[in-house]
Design goal:
It contains 20 helices and seven strands. By secondary structure, it is of the alpha/beta class. β2, α5 and β3 form a beta-alpha-beta unit. The longest helix is centred in the C-terminal third of the chain and has 20 residues, at about 405-425.
């Protein structure tokens, strides 16, 4: 029966696992737990192909527990109950380790149903997820488990797996199977930290070797053919979507145009044109704001152009917008102001609108005292007159504080002078 190459060379010992040194190095916490046999309920969080399933299998073997694997996309709680019925039986005398892959696909009721089995020690649960467990796993499970984050494997570590896979392929085919240095680099860097994906690439390349070949060297061209766009990890509803958007905004906020262009390129390569447009518009107001008020108009024009052009040309105006925002002076004073006002309104801190500000464009308004004492600013010097605008309950509240940008300080100086001049004339 056919067995994928990635399964055939799956490590059987922690020393064979590539990457995850922060978890599996000699003095790392998880490594010490495994070596001591003190295994508790755990959640393995990280992208696909980085060793979560492999480590769970090694844990089961080292602790002499029977390993059962379920995938939450296809199984039900009845499958879990069926496994628990094996506790104490001949096939699971030393205990059961249940590896539940993609736990985020269990709903709240299904996840809560796991509690009765993990609380009484019937099973040790290792749940894995590619999504942030603090968003997708319910607190009842989280509070009874330890979360370990698995990270994408470095290019250097992945090369070791690729070379090991190539050696095995060569032995299977009875030929000298090699990769050029360029091909090795392309596959290792193009798999996005996914070991399984790199091994699958080697297996695919081996399938194209002529049957009568005595030796074969994979070229850079062939490596590119199997690695194109494979390094992209993206799901518009998943962590990758929000992580890239977050990195884009923080890079622009940090005035790094190179990083901004990099993360924008990742969004556009993944086909998320709407997400990129929306976030650039947000940043024009949130992070540049009053330091360069015209930025929002320019970014809006860039976004409109991008949406009209479509990809690939849309990358040009959006790249311009990203560079503009990253290199512009920064101020979040207007953002802080509206956030403060929204917080007060949401908390019920509003109060009655001063009567002189209320609408007076109807019959009977004067009888209600509406607008009678209102002072029309344009009738006064510098188009300003002192009068109350905030409700009585919020008098003295300051939402907008002038930022340190040149434009805001210039504006502040103007209004300080206007108000001081009015005081001097009194």
């Amino acid at each position: 029966m056919y067995q994928p190459l990635a399964d055939r060379i799956r490590p059987t010992d922690l020393s064979q696992v590539v990457g995850q040194e922060h978890l599996l190095a000699e003095n790392a916490l998880l490594r010490r737990m495994i070596d001591n046999g003190n295994i508790s309920n755990m959640i393995f969080y990280g992208p696909s192909g980085v060793g979560k399933t492999t480590v769970a299998g090694i844990i089961a073997a080292k602790t002499n527990r029977t390993l059962y694997r379920l995938n939450a996309t296809t199984c039900s709680i009845n499958d879990v109950k069926a496994i628990c019925d094996e506790v104490g039986g001949f096939s699971a005398q030393s205990g059961i380790l249940l590896y539940l892959d993609e736990i985020q696909y269990f709903n709240k009721k299904q996840q809560q149903s796991l509690l009765e089995f993990i609380e009484n020690g019937s099973i040790i649960l290792i749940a894995s997820t590619t999504e942030n467990p603090y968003f997708y796993v319910y607190n009842a499970i989280l509070s009874r488990s330890t979360v370990f984050e698995f990270k994408p494997v470095s290019t250097g570590q992945i090369k070791k797996s690729i070379l090991r896979a190539a050696d095995l392929v060569g032995m299977d085919r009875g030929l000298e199977f090699k990769l050029s240095s360029e091909a090795l680099d392309i596959i290792a860097s193009g798999c996005g930290g996914d070991v399984r994906k790199s091994i699958n690439a080697v297996e695919l390349l081996a399938s194209a070797v002529p049957s009568d070949a005595a030796s074969y060297t994979v070229t850079a061209e062939d490596a590119l053919a199997v690695s194109q766009r494979s390094s992209m990890r993206y799901d518009r509803d998943g962590d990758a979507h929000y992580d890239i958007l977050s990195a884009l905004q923080k890079s622009i906020r940090g005035s790094d145009p190179d990083a901004a262009l990099h993360y924008l390129a990742r969004l556009l390569t993944a086909g998320d044109l709407p997400g990129a447009c929306r976030r650039l518009l947000v940043m024009a107001s949130e992070d540049v704001g009053m330091a360069y008020p015209q930025a929002i108009s320019i970014v809006k024009a860039c976004v409109d152009s991008a949406l009209q052009l479509g990809m690939p040309e849309a990358q040009l105006p959006l790249g311009q917008a990203a560079v503009l925002l990253a290199t512009s002076p920064k101020s979040n004073s207007s953002a802080e102001g509206i956030w403060g006002a929204m917080a007060d309104v949401s908390a019920g801190r509003t109060g009655d609108i001063p009567v002189h500000l209320k609408d007076a464009h109807y019959k009977g308004a004067a009888k209600l005292g509406r607008g009678i004492e209102y002072k029309y600013p344009h009738s006064f010097e510098n188009h300003w007159v002192e009068q109350q605008y905030l409700p009585d309950e919020l008098l003295g509240t300051v939402y907008y504080k002038y930022g340190q940008s040149k434009l805001e300080q210039s504006t502040k100086a103007y209004w300080d002078a206007v108000k001081q001049s009015r005081k001097d004339k009194k």
